[in-house]
Amino acid sequence: MTIICNVRSGRGQVVKHLSEVRAELDRRQLEYDVALTERRGHAPDLAREALERGAKLLVAMGGDGTIHEVVNGMIDGDRAVAPDAALGVVAAGTGSDFIKTFGLPVAPIHAVSHLDGDEAFPIDIGKITYEEDS
To answer: Which neighbouring-strand residues pair with 80?
Structure first.
């Protein structure tokens, strides 16, 4: 598992939540790496690198923008970079519409319990391509 953490999410509160999440992962004896984003647009690179190293679960820790970037890193063109990889989400943003839509836990510490359980479910993704008339 690789946690891709946007340290700027949630007005910077994600760092506080990260220590709680790490403690819970350690308590559950789960192996994980943490990759911290350094700038906007960095999460797709971190996701791709983690998949190339063999990660099977990428956890987007941040808000909706972080989730969006991690998912984009899991896809190359029209194909999954690693078809057997999964996405986990630990919300730590300010809005977090994604977790509201899919009924995921709001509290980061509670979200950890979903990372090693059997509550996974598929979510379709779509790609929109548009052309603009000049």
So the answer is: 75
